[in-house]
């Protein structure tokens, strides 16, 4: 009898231990190193911070969250390997990541095959168009960026532009999307140049663009160091028409790389996060972006940026969905993500549908201009 009692006590204790150790495993693969580290590093730091904050508040539905985080170095093949490992070995219930279009596409293929929810942090529209059941994303699409830019150009009476685009996955995708929608705005492309990811001087391409008759503005779809080089060369060539960049450079790091003087006057479609301090109090995003900015900067001692904001929103979408589903089963999470409604994030107010796995419209974009080395609102 004594042994039975002891055994029962042990079993009860083990039972309590199991309950106490219950956890929700969330996977992530981001580009903490490599050519897209300026994207992946703040994403990784944001996810670690948010998991820590969530667990300090009791976790999700009373369960602690465990983040299994890998650095794919911006390599699509590594991203595919890590996605497989996250699902098969680590047994995660969802994946956040894909700092770039290429790594996102690799992860999405694995996630779809295994029916595990995946929230991408990359911009290309091809990630969610056509809609795939288990794939979602948080950044505005490149097509939306084109539309926001062309809206601004049209308002200023600009009808003839040059384009200089990166040949990386993001640059090529945005280039194609811009060409697809530009006719709607009555704007003509009079020069169309490209540059490679490793190019260190875009002076020849910009010289060709500068010489085009009637040129009124230039648009640079791209991300990474390329747009900063374009901006510096633009200044060196004394091109005076407005320069528009993509949301792929929406961070203070771009201003630092390009140089304050060269970046002056550059316009981009960006997020509320970049102008958190000057948002009107009536803006529903202000409390969210201000709280994230304060927490991130206190934690990392570095300026907040758009890219970490994408990870912030992805984690909140996932947390909100698991809470509403009352379950951490992948299928239940997927269904709940698709029903996300009115969730305020750093990129906008998210409302998903079976036909829309982004949940943002053009109103989520702010048109920004760099003045005196700072981001300012122009709409």
Automatic annotation (TrEMBL):
PANTHER family: BLR7848 PROTEIN, LEUCINE-SPECIFIC-BINDING PROTEIN. This is ABC-type branched-chain amino acid transport systems, periplasmic component. Belongs to the leucine-binding protein family. Keywords: Amino-acid transport, Signal, Transport. It holds the Pfam family Peripla_BP_6. Residues 1-22 form the signal peptide. GO terms for biological process: amino acid transport. Residues 23-358 form the Leucine-binding protein domain.
């Amino acid at each position: 009898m004594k042994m039975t009692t002891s055994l029962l006590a042990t079993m009860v204790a083990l039972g309590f231990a199991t309950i106490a150790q219950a956890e929700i495993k969330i996977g992530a693969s981001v580009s903490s190193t490599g050519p897209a580290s300026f994207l992946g590093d703040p994403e990784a730091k944001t996810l670690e911070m948010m998991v820590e904050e969530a667990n300090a508040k009791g976790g999700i539905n009373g369960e602690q969250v465990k983040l299994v985080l890998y650095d794919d170095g911006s390599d699509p093949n590594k991203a595919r390997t890590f996605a497989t490992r996250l699902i098969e070995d680590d047994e995660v219930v969802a994946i956040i990541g894909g700092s770039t279009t290429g790594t996102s596409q690799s992860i999405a293929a694995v996630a779809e095959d295994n029916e595990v929810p995946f929230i991408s942090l990359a911009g290309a529209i091809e990630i969610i168009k056509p809609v795939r059941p288990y794939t979602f994303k948080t950044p505005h699409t490149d097509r939306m960026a084109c539309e926001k830019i062309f809206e601004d150009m049209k308002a200023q009476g600009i009808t003839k532009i040059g384009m200089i685009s990166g040949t990386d996955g993001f640059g090529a995708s945005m280039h194609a999307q811009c060409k697809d929608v530009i006719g709607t705005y009555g704007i003509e492309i009079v020069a169309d140049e490209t540059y490679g990811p490793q190019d260190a001087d875009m002076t020849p391409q910009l010289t060709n663009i500068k010489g085009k008759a009637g040129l009124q503005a230039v648009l640079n779809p791209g991300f990474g160091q390329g747009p900063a080089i374009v901006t510096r060369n633009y200044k060196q060539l004394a091109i005076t028409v407005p320069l528009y960049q993509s949301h792929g450079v929406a961070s203070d790091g771009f201003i630092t790389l390009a140089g304050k003087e060269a970046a002056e006057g550059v316009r981009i479609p960006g997020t509320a996060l970049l102008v958190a301090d000057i948002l009107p109090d009536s803006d529903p995003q202000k409390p969210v972006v201000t709280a994230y900015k304060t927490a991130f900067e206190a934690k990392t001692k570095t300026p907040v940026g758009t890219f970490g904001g994408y990870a912030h929103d992805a984690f909140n979408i996932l947390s909100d969905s698991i809470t509403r589903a009352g379950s951490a089963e992948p299928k239940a999470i997927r269904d709940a993500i698709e029903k996300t409604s009115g969730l305020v994030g750093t990129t906008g107010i998210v409302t998903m549908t079976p036909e829309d796995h982004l949940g943002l419209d053009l109103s989520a974009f702010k048109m920004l201009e760099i003045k005196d080395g700072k981001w300012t609102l122009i709409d």
